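Possible regression after last week's pipeline update?

I re-ran a chain I had predicted before the update to compare outputs. Posting the input and the new output here so someone can diff against the archived version. Not blocking, just want to make sure nothing changed silently.
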Amino acid sequence: MYVGPVVTPGVSAPPSFVRLAGHPLRWRLLGELARSDRRVRELVSLVGQPQNLVSYHLGRLRAGQLVAARRSTFDARHAYYHLDLANCADALAAAGLALHPGLRLAPVTAAAPARRCRVLFLCTGNSSRSPAAEALLRRRAGQVEVASAGSHPKPLHPNTVRVLRAYGIDLAGRPPRHLSDYERQRFDHVITLCDRVREVCPEFPGRAEQVHWSIPDPAAAGGTDDDTYPAFERMAAELDTRIGFLLAAIGAAPPQASAREA
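New output (post-update):
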C-alpha cells in the first residue's frame, strides 16, 4: 500500500533554485536567456511552446529572481527578458550547500580566454554604453581584441568618462566610431547593448555570435549630469558583471580557428 514519500530526518525540502530550474521548460528558458536577452515572442519560437505557457513560466522565474525584464526602448509594447547571472550563481551555490557542505562552489572568476578572440560592442550613440563596455572588457582581459561603435555616433558623454575613472580607466578624448567602420570585419562576438541598434545591426562576415544585452540608456531620463550620474553607475556595474560572465564563457569555449584565420 502506498503511504506517500519517505522523508529522511534532517533532510530539508529542495531549495527554490532546484524547484524552479528543475522544470524542463523553465530550464530551457534559462538556457536561452543565458545566451542572449530575448522578447517573449522570440522565446516562444525558440522553445516551441504556446505564448501563455512561456509567459507563465517566465513569471515564475521572475518571482524567483532568476530572470528580470525591461521594457524595450525600441518598441515599448514589448519587454526584453534577461538572466540575472549574479542571482543564479548565488542560488546555485546555496543549493549545493543545502545538499552537502562539501559541495561549496568556488567563487566565480573569469578564466583566461582559450584562444584570442575579437569582440564588438554596439549601441546607438557610442557615447556611453558601448565605449564603457569596450573599456571594461579591455581592462579585465587585455588579450581580447575589443572595439565599439554606434549607428548614430555622438561625442562621449561626460558621465561616461567620470564613471569609468572609478574603475581606473581614462577615456577622455576618445572619438566616437560608426558601425560601418567595422561591418566588413570578422568578430567572434557582436554584442548589441541597446534595443534600437539591435534592429539595424548588420550581418557580420564569418561566424560571429550575435548577442543582445538590453541595457538602458543612462542619459535617457534627462536632467543635469549630476542628476543622471547614478544611472551611469548602474550601467557600468551591470556591464562589468556581464563582462565577467562573458569572459568565463570565452575561457570555457573549445579551441578553434580564430575569426581572422577562418
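Follow-up from reviewer: compared with the archived run. The beta strands are 38-39, 67-71, 79-83, 118-123, 145-150, 189-192, 209-212. Marking as no regression found.
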